[in-house]
Amino acid sequence: MTTSLINFRELLKRPVCFLGLGFGSGLAPKAPGTFGTLAALPIYWLMQDLALLIYLLLTVIAFIVGIWICQKSADWLGKDDPSAVVWDEIVGYLVTMIAAPTGWQWMIIGFILFRFFDILKPWPISWADKNLHGGLGIMVDDVMAGLCALVILQVLFIAM
Question: Of 65, 81, 96, 156, whose CB has the highest number of CB atoms within 10 Å?
Answer without folding.
Answer: 96
